[in-house]
Specification:
The complex is a heterodimer of chains A (345) and B (481). Chain A is an all-alpha fold. Chain A is built from 17 helices and no strands. In chain B, a hairpin with a 2-residue loop joins strand 9 and strand 10. In chain B, helix 7 packs across helix 14 and helix 12 packs across helix 15. The longest helix of chain B is centred in the first third of the chain and has 40 residues. The radius of gyration of chain B is 23 Å and the shape is globular. Classes of the chains: A mainly alpha (345), B alpha/beta (481).
Chain lengths: 345, 481
């Protein structure tokens, strides 16, 4: 029995070694092919990069040699396009890239979109979005109907919809279920104009709870003054998370006028609300809000104290106020905090 | 008498065959699984997709902690490498853990650090902080001077000081690719915070060109067999351990050299443990334990991209100490949390990870070493044993050399970190020799760890230094096998 096993094992190892050898050769050939492709790509880049630049600057009409002839040159063109799309957003250049891709690259991506390989489809989807290849929109919609659509693809398909079919997308957006991650959802929202977001504020309460949070966050990120009334209307919301996030968003926008709306948070049992208030008070003239900040500076929560101290120190005569506070106050922790903030400035 | 010996020898031989057979099957399974994963991502244009994440609106701010103990040689390079990272919002905290050399002076001078008064909220216990400095050149660069307490203690002090919700620990002598942080944070950002920790793939930088904290690869690998062997080992650990384990949330070790954690959870479990040698594994086990005990549905991930570069030991002495230390850390963590073994309360971690780590990673070296000795003895005894010996030896070769060679193949096909035909051949040929010298050596070193554990040898003073300065655990659960 053992002899048979030895025999079997030796054969097994022999077969494995053979596979190893064959795979090694395959990998080497593959590597050589890839090297050839990247050399070709380099050559294209070297000879045409400047020409692309001149074409984008409207100095020359589209020269024929820029049209890629094979995969290596397509890769080179992609690299040039990405460097423009990701670093510079001139509408003229973007339009040129859009036109060129729609005319000369779409067939390449069409092939990739129908590929069985997930990674190739992903690459294609990302390029459809980045280069705005609208001629492939219908093809992308077909992808949605595949029996299995990965979450990553689903997200890109949504983005593609938002880019090429704004109205249809809005309808779909308000009905989105909760399968997008925070990152994806916010990224979609950020792409909207402020007017669209303002329209959405009326529908926010219909969104799933988490999406409501992300929505408020994005309003803060947008830093648009027009959102403040809506955010302030949420300050008395029954959901704590919505209250805190609204405070945070208002703080991001950084402009508040009516102090009375915020005073309730001074004695809130939730420290995050007091902390956000401490931050927010920094936006008011110090003499108006100093008593409140002094109270928060002596709060039992470290984060509240820390933000109160910082808000005071940001004002013009904040430093002298803090120095006076250190001399007269009893609260050791508050004094320490005041000292720290002073030293930092 | 000889009849009894005969039976015992046969039983042991049978057990060894069974054990090795199982282990080879397990690893082949994991290798195959990794192949499926790598195939899925093959040709995915990651560098284009990375751009998508580098927007500060959505990326989570991150504190980077570099513990440093007597690192006057490498610390500036480390800091430079971190300052070069592509990530929208970070702060960099260098923790000088009571160095006795010029570490602190060099950092202060190089980055024009100025003292600042700062109250640090102690959320995890750590040795007192003496002074905090802030750089005048890079306002987000801080230096904490504290009393010596070991690497774990230094990291805890860094966590207390950190102001962002995520932190990343980097060893003083590691270097990162500029996209490392983006890549390692991606699972956290994309998972809606379901992922609370992510480890990166650590690679060896010996012989590669390092300038201003950036690694320029595509160079010829060094010729030293010991370094080449470690490169193979790290690759193998990744291909046959991490990737598969991570997929099922079974990872017990993510590299201390480069990993990101959600601060909240690390504070909840009391931070890094100062009582164990392998604080990186200990933290991950504590996190898993905490999650299961509190019924929280969170994950710990492993990122396949090669993102962190480290210097591997080039001498047998240093390597031996390193391996002994790693294994000692592994044993200690497993013993500390032994209640989790086969405990259904801890789900897959208790039922799969722990038994696997005990049997294959922890006791594996003892069993394997016994197997090697058996092969040698049986060879001389002749008769039936001879065949046993050959069979077992072949299994060892299959296990050590062939699987390693396949790992190298897969790595070249998928990520191809080291590049070049010459490097490929160097690695493949070297990997085939693994069973004949490197593997037995590391087995002996790891078995020494048992003696150290049994004798209660901690040799703290020395350990602290080793832990901080050189050679982070690469990533491989496989390595501690």
């Amino acid at each position: 029995m053992i002899e048979i096993s030895i025999d079997l094992l030796i054969k097994g190892i022999g077969v494995l070694s053979l596979i190893l050898a064959i795979l090694s050769i395959y990998i080497l050939l593959n590597g050589a092919k890839e090297n050839a492709v990247s050399r070709k790509k380099e050559r294209y880049l070297q000879s045409n990069e400047h020409l692309w630049y001149r074409y984008f600057k409207d100095e020359v009409p589209l020269p024929a040699e820029l049209i890629p002839k094979d995969d290596a040159e397509i890769q080179a063109v992609e690299e040039i396009f990405f460097s423009y799309v990701q670093n510079l957003s001139s509408p003229i250049v973007k339009e040129k890239i859009r036109k060129f891709s729609n005319q000369y690259l779409w067939q390449h991506y069409l092939k990739l979109l129908s590929s069985k390989k997930w990674s190739l489809r992903m690459n294609a989807l990302y390029r459809v979005v980045s280069f705005e290849i609208d001629s492939l929109f219908d093809e992308c919609k077909k992808l949605e109907k595949r029996p299995v659509v990965s979450p990553e693809e689903r997200y890109f398909l949504l983005v593609i919809r938002s880019v090429f079919d704004g109205a249809g997308f809005m309808e779909e957006f308000t009905k989105l279920s909760t399968d997008l991650s925070e990152y994806e959802y916010k990224k979609l929202l950020i792409g909207f104009d402020s007017e669209v977001l303002e329209q959405l504020t009326c529908q926010m309460s219909d969104f799933p709870e988490e999406y409501q949070y992300y929505f408020i966050d994005v309003l803060g990120i947008k830093r648009n003054l027009n959102f403040v009334p809506f955010l302030e209307s949420n300050l008395y919301h029954e959901n704590v998370e919505i209250r805190i996030r609204s405070l945070k968003a208002i703080n991001e926008i950084g402009i508040v006028d009516d102090l009375d709306k915020y005073k309730v948070f001074l004695n809130s049992p939730i420290w995050e609300e007091r902390m956000m208030l401490a931050k927010l008070l920094g936006a008011f003239p110090l003499e108006e809000v100093y008593p409140f900040l002094e109270q928060l500076l002596q709060d039992n929560n470290w984060w509240v104290r820390s933000n109160a101290a910082r808000s005071i120190s940001h004002s013009k005569d904040g430093k002298s106020r803090l120095e006076r506070f250190i001399e007269t106050a009893q609260d050791r922790y508050a004094i320490e905090m005041a000292r720290e903030v002073l030293g930092r400035g | 008498m000889s009849a009894i010996a005969d039976i015992l020898a046969k039983i042991f031989g049978g057990f060894m065959l069974l054990y090795m057979g199982l282990v080879v099957l397990t690893y082949t399974g994991m290798l195959f699984f990794s192949f499926l994963e790598m195939r899925k991502q093959h040709k995915l244009d990651k560098s284009a997709l990375d751009e998508d994440y580098s927007d500060s609106f959505y990326s989570k701010p991150l504190s980077i902690i570099i513990p440093a103990y007597n690192e006057e040689v490498g610390v500036v390079d480390s800091i430079q490498s971190v300052l070069n990272l592509k990530y929208p919002q970070t702060e960099l905290i260098v923790v000088n853990d009571g160095s006795t050399d010029q570490t602190q002076e060099i950092v202060i001078e190089q980055f024009r650090m100025k003292k600042i008064p700062k109250v640090v909220k102690e959320q995890i216990k750590s040795k007192p902080i003496i002074q905090v400095y802030q750089s005048e050149i890079h306002r987000n660069l801080y230096l904490i001077e504290k009393e010596n307490g070991g690497k774990a203690d230094a990291l805890n002090a860094g966590i207390n000081f950190a102001k962002y919700p995520y932190f990343c620990s980097i060893d003083g002598d590691s270097l990162l690719d500029e996209k490392s942080l983006l890549r390692v944070m991606k699972p956290i950002i994309m998972s809606n915070e379901e992922v609370i920790a992510a480890g990166g793939n650590v690679r060896i930088a010996n012989g590669l060109d390092v300038q201003l904290g950036a690694v320029h690869h595509k160079k010829n690998l060094p010729n030293r067999p010991l370094v080449l062997m470690q490169i193979i080992e790290y690759t193998r650990a990744f291909m046959m351990g991490r990737l598969a384990l991570a997929k099922f949330n079974l990872v017990l070790i993510i590299s201390g050299a480069f990993s990101v954690f959600a601060k909240e959870w690390v504070i909840a479990v009391g931070g890094y443990s100062t009582q164990t040698i392998g604080e990186d594994m200990e933290l991950v086990v504590k996190l898993h334990r905490y999650l299961r005990e509190n019924n929280v549905d969170k994950r710990i991930e492993f990122v396949p991209d090669p993102v962190c570069w480290t210097e591997a030991p080039e001498s047998f002495g240093v390597l031996r100490r390193q391996r002994r230390r790693w294994h000692q850390g592994l044993i200690e963590s497993l013993v500390r949390h032994k209640v989790m073994t086969f405990n259904p309360k801890y789900g897959k971690i208790g039922m799969v990870s722990f038994p696997y780590f005990w049997l294959v990673e922890c006791f594996g070296p003892l069993i394997e070493l016994a197997g090697h000795i058996y092969v040698i003895i049986a060879f001389f005894l002749g008769r039936v044993y001879f065949e046993f010996a050959i069979l077992l030896a072949l299994l060892f070769i299959l296990y050590g050399s062939v699987l390693s060679a396949f790992s190298i193949l897969m790595e070249t096909w998928s990520v191809n970190v080291y590049g070049g035909t010459k490097n490929f051949f160097k690695l493949i040929i070297m990997s085939l020799t693994e069973s004949f010298w490197y593997r037995p050596l590391t087995l002996i070193w790891r078995c020494e760890a048992f003696i150290h554990v049994l004798l209660g040898r901690r040799s703290w003073g020395h350990m602290k230094k080793v832990g901080l300065s050189k050679n982070p655990r690469p990533d491989g659960s496989e390595l501690s096998k």
